[in-house]
């Protein structure tokens, strides 16, 4: 057999007839050949083909073989050799190969290998070069022929231009003959040089090739001419991915359009075929591009017939058998001992093969390759090599560590661990392979004197990297088989390696694995903590619940019938806890108790325990105790504590990983114990005081269904799974708020006034409409039996307990027999009590929640523990009183239907009055009481409005007094001002002020600042704001007293000049010496005025002194 070559080049290997010697036809290759040759033999077949596959799967080799076949380059013997190989695998393909001889066309292979640039230029150049090399004279649509034609025209018609061209070639040190040869072979550098030179002799005209403009049209002309000569073209574009990766500029869409046009064109003509070869689909090269580019790539790909070369086990074995045949024949002639088929069948390596296939296809045909190596080889080749290419290299070449190299130096089996060096696994990048990282951590600690130790580590590394642990766990027995040693020898070595923390036996997965353990003796650390650690009953239950395989049971039958999700949760408990358990608000709809006995002496008769219980629970009594797993529970607690001990973990970075593994191992033992509760045969089941027979999970689900049907027999039927649950999405929540708002505002509108068919309408339809909910003409709620029962229960609570916690009503709706979901409760709460809504009020800390909306109701019900409800049922007489009350205050008739509306209206009326009116005491006692009652109705509208209604005609008087107070107060203030000033009218006061203003030298009375233009209406209000600084509407009684006092002072200030002057004269006539105390007082007053009054004007300081003298 010919030696293996690592790669195939279409241009160089096409003329090689010996290429077939190393070709192995596989089923996947047959599919490709069938598709291509169908188009060659039958003109109606597909001519555009796309071949993809990973590196090393033989794409280029297959493409070369196809070109050799259709071009008829070799003798009949070559074709017969290919036909012989084909007849063993695919008779249909053999017929196609025979029929290729009768095809009246001889194909010229057109080879393109990873070329980039303009697609139409690449195709034109490749066709020109192929025809030129085949010495077929045809005018081809190509840039090279255009260049040569232009130069020939210059030579004949434009000698000066031709002479300039020759000078250019001379400067480049190139002869014309040599230049022509380069152009004919489409030499890129020479072509670009000519294109750059062309404008210099054509007055700046740029080079253009008209053939590129008419790409497909020119190919049609070429096809017609070639058909007439009995010639066809077989275009192979290898490494097409390089071309696709180079796209991204402005010509991307044009190139893809050309590719699409070419694919469609070759399917229409009989003598041109196109085979595009790459590593992945065309569309995948545009995955990160914009939408228009991705669509263009997808559209182009659909024009091709697609083939994929994949690696599978049967293909691998076939290729391996062909590649190893010489080595196998040579080694089988020696005296050997083969592995037995029986031994091989003990492992899950080749379950898909029969005994005969194992013996003939693996044990004998692939010797000296060990069966474990046979399993490992294709996976290693895929990860660290190039698939079939590396496979052939390993089996047939003499490279270091290859199979041939081993056979030349050794006898016997080539074991799997020896491939570690051939694939250079130890040198691979470990960043993507955790197992390699682990290997590099362990490798320095391996004993160089113990070769078997290193072999085991290398095998474990490769087995983990290739993820074959899922197919065949690495057990002690399998390791001995894989490395060819005795079971006892390897068991001793594994124990030593385990003690050194190089490997460990994973009891969870039941296999050996690489392990980089810490430097801490964890066994000793755990034992030292066990001595001081105890386990309480509650901790035992908690740890057991952490290992439950399922934490709840779904009653599927019940949930399907009711279109909702209910479940029963599962909890462990000891007998003492169960006896004192009281039914409360469970997070689940039902509970399943799994009894835990601390020891066998604790076991009691279940009927005795169930008779002592007050609740009808579902309980499982075991026939075993927790005693045998107590140590594991204690270990679990200690290891878990160590995992959360940051000081302990800081000793070694590997401790956390090691402790996690120990916790998992301990957890497995606990899990085995917990699983006994779900084997059912070792349990005695009781539902209330009735024993049940439960043999599997299905029966348990049916029992839970039966219990829930009995427990929640008045649950409303709401076919809306997205809404009928405890937690709903934001969209459903917004829809629910909208429905509640419509219930409050438009209860009598059809469909509550909801328009459209969105989530809000669906909630209304499923929860209310489908349950026959509506409000009749008299304003009463009507609904079907289930909702009617819930409504009657709510009404009974309101009638019997008018004041109470809101949580009592909500809890009743959540509890059996209703069991309404949290999201549904706000809707039904409002809907079922809508006809009593005006009489039902919610309070927080004795404060009424006056404005209720959908959003606020949801929040209130979620926090129902903090709220109180009060239900007020008015008598007919009280309703008449309410109407009469509204009449006194001129309230609309529709407002008088609710005391809450009346309270709101009266509060609005009161707040519309001036603030002075709302707080003054200058009104009658009855009016004060009526005003205070109205104000208090904001907190307790029912009690206060009811009290207010008893005042009768006094309400009218109070209303009038309050509305007239502001005017009456103005008259009273005018009277007092006139009394102070001694004037008859306010208008008479202004001439006096004007006189003082003219003489006001040294006077600073604020009355002098009053504008003369204020001598009309509103004089009192102007004086009030001027003297006090507060508008009269915002006054209080104290402000009024301040105003009167200020008037007195300011008026006296105007008349104080003469008196003060006389007093000063009198003081200066009697000059009295100052005592020490007087001098101290003088100094203090002087300093205070000097420093404290530095920001006060001199005029104000003087005014202050005058005022002091006046008062003294």
Automatic annotation (TrEMBL):
PROSITE patterns named in the record? LIPOXYGENASE_2
Give GO terms: molecular function aspect only.
Answer: metal ion binding; oxidoreductase activity, acting on single donors with incorporation of molecular oxygen, incorporation of two atoms of oxygen
InterPro entries per the record?
LipOase_CS, P-loop_NTPase
Q: Which domain of life is it from?
A: Bacteria
Listed name of the protein? ATP-binding protein
């Amino acid at each position: 057999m010919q030696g293996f070559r690592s790669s195939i080049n279409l241009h160089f290997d096409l003329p090689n007839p010996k290429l077939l010697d190393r070709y192995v036809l596989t089923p996947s290759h047959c599919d490709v050949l069938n598709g291509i040759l169908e188009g060659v033999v039958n003109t109606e077949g597909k001519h555009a083909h796309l071949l993809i596959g990973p590196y090393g799967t033989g794409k280029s080799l297959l493409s070369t073989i196809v070109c050799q076949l259709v071009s008829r380059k070799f003798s009949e013997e070559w074709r017969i050799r290919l036909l012989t190989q084909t007849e063993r695998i695919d008779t249909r393909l053999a017929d196609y190969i025979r029929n290729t001889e009768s095809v009246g066309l001889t194909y010229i292979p057109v080879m393109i290998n990873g070329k980039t640039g303009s697609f139409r230029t690449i195709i034109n150049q490749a066709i020109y070069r192929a025809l030129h090399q085949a010495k077929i004279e045809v005018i081809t649509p190509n840039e090279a022929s255009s260049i040569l034609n232009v130069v020939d025209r210059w030579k004949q018609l434009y000698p000066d231009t031709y002479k300039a061209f020759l000078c250019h070639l001379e400067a480049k040190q190139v002869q014309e003959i040599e230049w022509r040869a380069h152009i004919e072979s489409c030499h890129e550098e020479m072509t670009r040089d000519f294109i750059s030179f062309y404008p210099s002799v054509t007055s700046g005209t740029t080079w253009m090739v008209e053939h590129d403009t008419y790409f497909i049209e020119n190919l049609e002309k070429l096809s017609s001419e070639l058909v007439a000569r009995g010639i066809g073209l077989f275009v192979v574009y290898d490494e097409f991915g390089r071309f696709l990766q180079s796209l991204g500029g402005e010509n991307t869409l044009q190139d893809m359009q050309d590719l699409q046009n070419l694919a469609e064109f070759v399917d229409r003509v009989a003598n041109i075929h196109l085979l595009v070869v790459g590593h992945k689909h065309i569309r995948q090269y545009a995955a990160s591009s914009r939408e228009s580019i991705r669509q263009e790539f997808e559209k182009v790909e659909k024009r091709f017939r697609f083939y994929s070369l994949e690696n599978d086990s049967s293909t691998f074995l076939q290729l391996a058998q062909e590649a190893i045949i010489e080595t196998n024949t040579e080694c089988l002639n020696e005296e050997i001992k083969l592995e037995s088929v029986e031994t091989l069948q003990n492992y899950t390596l080749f379950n898909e093969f029969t005994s005969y296939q194992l013996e003939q296809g693996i044990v004998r045909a692939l010797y000296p390759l060990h069966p474990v190596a046979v399993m490992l080889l294709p996976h290693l080749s895929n990860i660290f090599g190039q698939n079939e290419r590396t496979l052939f290299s390993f089996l047939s070449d003499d490279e270091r560590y290859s199979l041939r190299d081993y056979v030349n130096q050794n006898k016997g089996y080539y074991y799997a661990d020896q491939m570690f060096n051939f694939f250079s696994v130890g040198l691979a990048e470990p960043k993507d392979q955790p197992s390699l990282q682990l290997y590099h951590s362990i490798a320095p600690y391996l004993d160089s004197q113990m070769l078997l130790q290193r072999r085991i580590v290398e095998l474990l590394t490769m087995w983990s990297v290739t993820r074959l642990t899922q197919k065949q766990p690495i057990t002690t027995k399998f390791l001995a088989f894989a490395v060819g040693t005795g079971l006892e020898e390897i068991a001793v070595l594994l124990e030593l390696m385990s003690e050194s923390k190089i490997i460990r036996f994973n009891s969870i997965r039941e296999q050996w694995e690489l392990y980089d353990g810490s430097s801490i003796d964890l066994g000793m650390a755990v034992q030292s903590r066990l001595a001081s650690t105890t386990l309480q009953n509650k901790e035992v239950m908690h740890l057991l619940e952490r290992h439950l395989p399922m934490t709840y049971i779904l009653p599927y039958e019940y949930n399907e019938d009711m279109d909702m999700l209910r479940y029963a949760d599962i909890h462990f408990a000891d007998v003492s806890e169960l006896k004192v358990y009281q039914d409360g608000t469970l997070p689940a709809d039902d509970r399943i108790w799994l009894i835990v006995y601390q020891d066998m002496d604790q076991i009691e008769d279940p009927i005795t325990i169930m008779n002592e219980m007050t609740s009808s629970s579902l309980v499982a009594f075991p026939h075993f105790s927790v005693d045998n797993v107590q140590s594991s529970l204690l270990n679990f607690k200690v290891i878990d504590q160590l995992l959360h001990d940051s000081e302990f973990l800081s000793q070694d970075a590997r401790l956390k990983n090691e402790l996690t593994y120990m916790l998992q191992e301990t957890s497995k033992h606990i899990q085995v114990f917990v699983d006994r509760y779900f084997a059912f045969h070792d349990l005695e089941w009781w539902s209330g005081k009735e024993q049940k027979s439960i043999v599997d999970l299905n029966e348990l689900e049916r029992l839970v269904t039966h219990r829930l049907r009995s427990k929640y027999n008045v649950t409303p039927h709401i076919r809306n799974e997205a809404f009928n649950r405890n937690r709903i999405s934001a969209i459903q929540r917004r829809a629910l708020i909208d429905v509640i708002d419509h219930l409050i505002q438009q209860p009598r509108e059809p469909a509550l006034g909801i328009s459209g068919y969105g989530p809000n309408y669906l909630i209304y339809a499923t929860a209310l409409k489908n349950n026959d909910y509506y409000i009749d003409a008299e304003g009463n709620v009507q609904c079907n039996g289930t909702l009617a029962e819930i409504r009657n229960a709510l009404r009974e609570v309101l009638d019997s307990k008018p004041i109470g916690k809101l949580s009592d009503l909500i809890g009743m709706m959540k509890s059996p027999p209703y069991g309404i979901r949290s999201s549904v409760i706000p809707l039904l709460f409002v809907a079922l009590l809508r006809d009593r809504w005006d009489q039902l009020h919610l309070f927080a800390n004795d404060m009424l929640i006056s404005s209720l909306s959908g959003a606020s109701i949801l929040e209130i019900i979620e926090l129902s523990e903090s709220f109180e409800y009060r239900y007020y049922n008015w008598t007919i007489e009280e309703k008449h009183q309410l109407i009469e009350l509204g009449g006194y205050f001129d309230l609309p008739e529709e407002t008088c239907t609710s005391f809450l509306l009346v309270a709101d209206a009266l509060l609005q009326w009161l707040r519309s009055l001036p603030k002075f009116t709302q707080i003054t005491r200058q009104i009658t006692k009855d009016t004060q009481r009526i005003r205070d009652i109205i104000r208090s109705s904001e907190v307790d509208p029912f009690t206060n409005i009811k009290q207010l209604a008893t005042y009768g005609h006094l309400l009218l008087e109070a209303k009038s007094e309050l509305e007239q107070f502001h005017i009456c107060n103005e008259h009273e203030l005018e009277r007092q001002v006139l009394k102070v000033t001694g004037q008859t009218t306010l208008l008479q006061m202004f001439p006096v002020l004007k006189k003082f203003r003219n003489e006001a030298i040294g006077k600073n009375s604020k009355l002098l600042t009053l504008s003369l233009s204020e001598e009309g209406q509103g004089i009192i209000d102007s004086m009030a704001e001027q003297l006090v600084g507060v508008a009269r509407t915002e006054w209080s009684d104290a402000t009024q007293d301040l105003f009167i006092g200020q008037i007195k002072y300011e008026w006296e200030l105007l008349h104080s000049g003469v008196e003060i002057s006389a007093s000063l004269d009198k003081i200066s006539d009697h000059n009295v010496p100052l005592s020490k105390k007087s001098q101290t007082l003088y100094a203090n007053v002087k300093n205070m005025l000097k420093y404290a009054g530095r920001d006060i004007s001199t005029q104000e300081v003087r005014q202050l002194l005058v005022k002091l003298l006046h008062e003294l």
